[in-house]
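Quick review question:
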């Protein structure tokens, strides 16, 4: 992933409602959700939801598909995983540290121990 795309993705998620929307879509998985179901689950007005979905679409974090009269929104898991890989690419200076298992921890120094 290019740095510019990572910044765009992180900027889109750096807003509470968009982060909530993305997390709900992650839980929904491959089935995705319609805007009405999203609005219902999040307790948000449709115009507000539409604005935030547009931002997530623009950042490539969600996809939109038409199913008859409905729109279905899904989290883009490939983009999410690319972002996570970008963020952890040089974890522990390249050592096999078991990223994803919470093994990479900051070393304690005299300053942090106090």
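Suggested answer, residue by residue:
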């Amino acid at each position: 992933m290019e740095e510019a795309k990572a910044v765009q993705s992180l900027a889109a998620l750096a807003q509470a409602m968009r982060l909530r929307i993305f997390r709900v879509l992650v839980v929904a998985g491959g089935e995705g959700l319609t805007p009405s179901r999203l609005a219902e689950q999040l307790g948000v007005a449709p115009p507000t939801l539409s604005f935030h979905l547009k931002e997530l679409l623009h950042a490539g974090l969600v996809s939109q598909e038409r199913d008859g009269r409905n729109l279905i929104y899904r989290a883009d898991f490939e983009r999410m995983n690319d972002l996570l890989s970008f963020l952890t690419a040089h974890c522990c200076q390249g050592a096999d540290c078991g990223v994803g298992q919470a093994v990479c921890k900051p070393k304690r120094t005299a300053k942090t121990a106090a």
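Why it works: The chain is about 55% helix and 10% strand. Residues 16-28 form the longest helix (13 residues).
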